[in-house]
From TrEMBL:
Name of the featured protein: PH domain-containing protein
Pfam family name, one: bPH_1
Organism, as annotated: Bacillus inaquosorum KCTC 13429
Domain (Bacterial Pleckstrin homology) ranges: 10-132
Species lineage: Bacteria, Bacillati, Bacillota, Bacilli, Bacillales
Transmembrane segments: none
Occurrences of domain YvbH-like oligomerisation (ranges): 144-204
Length: 204
């Protein structure tokens, strides 16, 4: 009940409104942020039906199929599992009331309308999502290159193995080395927390 009254007080419509940090506690999404794991809200867009909560770890979508219904479906999209891509910002024409930010998270397409008076703030989100998309794209290339390099190294070592070396011993050593190598590469390039990106673009 409190959340509904608070939402009404925010003056929401079908066009999204960017919520200020001091009003995050008036939203449903705030209840599902994993504060225990140092998850933090950096950007939140709310309409009568939906909430789009961007944290350092994930997009939390409180999905209301109809604005007239109190039912909500909570959907969570961790950036480490759902790659951001195809980020676009559509500005408003003279008669338009809204601007639109579009992007994909994995296979899900998001088109979010926001009141055009908040275009400057939406630009910050656009920059952050674009940087995350570019970073994950480049890191995927580096991870793939690391895997290819390891495969080549294993092939070369296999063909140059001295006769006196036990094949089982060599296989074990190569397997352990490969696991350590790939774990190290994944730890470096498979990013889960993009708090630094949001901090950079949200605090300008």
């Amino acid at each position: 009940m409190f959340k509904k009254i608070a939402a009404d007080a925010l003056g929401l419509s079908d066009i999204g409104k960017i919520i200020e940090p001091q009003d995050y506690d008036k939203t449903d999404a705030d209840d599902y942020v994993m504060h225990e794991d140092n998850e933090k809200i950096y950007f939140l867009i709310k309409t009568k039906a939906d909430e789009y909560c961007f944290t350092n770890l994930a997009l939390i979508h409180v999905d209301g199929a109809r604005a007239t219904s109190s039912k909500r479906t909570l959907k969570r999209y961790p950036y480490s599992q759902y790659k951001i891509s195809d980020v676009f910002l559509e500005t408003a024409g003279k008669v338009d009331l809204d601007v639109e930010i579009k992007f994909k998270l994995g296979g899900e397409q998001f088109d979010i309308d926001v009141h055009k008076d908040q275009i400057e703030k939406l630009k910050d989100l656009y920059k952050a999502l674009l940087r995350i998309a570019e970073t994950t794209y480049e890191n995927d290339i580096l991870i793939n290159q690391a895997e290819q390099s390891l495969d080549k190294a294993v092939t070369i070592l296999h063909h140059t193995r001295p006769e006196h070396v036990n094949i089982e011993t060599q296989y074990k050593e190569l397997t352990e080395f490969g696991f350590r190598w790939l774990t190290s590469v994944r730890s470096q390039y498979h990013i889960k927390d993009f708090g630094d990106v949001f901090e950079k673009y949200m605090n300008n």
